[in-house]
Design goal:
The protein has a five-stranded parallel beta sheet with strand order 2-3-1-4-5, sandwiched between helices. The protein has a single domain, classed as P-loop containing nucleotide triphosphate hydrolases (Rossmann fold, 3-Layer(aba) Sandwich). 38% of the residues are buried. It is α/β, with parallel strands linked by helices. Helix 3 runs antiparallel to helix 4, helix 4 packs antiparallel against helix 5 and helix 6 crosses helix 7. The protein has eight helices and five strands. The termini are close together.
Length: 195
């Protein structure tokens, strides 16, 4: 089973992954992973994030290459072996974030990014969406790159809402404005129910 954690920067995804790692109720052999990955594809993505002048379409394909490698080298082997996989970000991040950065180039950028992925990506069984407003997200994340500004995160949040509306059975929304311990507990309980 593949479970993904999604949400704006600063919503607490990485903190929740650490809480899952520490939870005795989650299988010890769970594979924890993330996008961008730690591969050379992921390194290219991080270089692009740091470059304010990076072309948004080229950036999409860097993310897409990293995603494809992630699926073939980490996700599919673990899921095929019957192992729970928890990913800090996955394809929905692409739809939401690159859907925002490409909005000036395509009539429906979210649909364009989804169409690029559709023939080959592996959808998660469940996605935990950590919901937080864009102002709080920018404050928590420190607005350290082009994706973490309030204006950018507002459009990303709109895109996430569109994804949740389209697939309500896959998404579990958790209010990430609650205390860290409450959010972590709710994430752990959600994964426990899935198991």
């Amino acid at each position: 089973m593949l479970v993904t954690l999604e949400g704006l920067d600063g919503s607490g995804k990485s903190t929740c992954v650490e809480a899952l790692r520490a939870a005795s109720s989650i299988p010890d052999d769970t594979v924890y992973t993330r996008e961008p990955t730690h591969s050379w594809y992921g390194d290219a993505v991080r270089r692009s994030i740091a470059n304010d002048d990076a072309d948004s379409l080229a950036e999409l394909f860097l993310y897409t290459a990293d995603h494809a490698d992630h699926i073939s080298t980490v996700i599919e082997p673990a899921v095929s072996a019957g192992t729970l996989v928890v990913s800090d970000r996955y394809s929905d991040s692409r739809y939401a974030y690159q859907g925002a950065t490409l909005a000036d180039r395509f009539d429906d950028a979210v649909a364009f990014v989804q169409d690029v992925h559709q023939p080959w990506t592996r959808p998660p069984e469940r996605t935990i969406y950590l919901d937080i407003d864009s102002e709080t997200a920018a404050e928590r994340s420190g607005a350290t790159n082009k994706f973490e500004t309030v204006s950018a995160l507002e459009q990303v949040r709109v895109n996430y809402e569109r994804l949740l509306e389209a697939e309500p059975e896959r998404f579990v929304r958790i209010d990430a404005s609650q205390s860290e311990s409450t959010v972590s507990r709710e994430v752990i309980e959600t994964v426990e129910r899935l198991l």
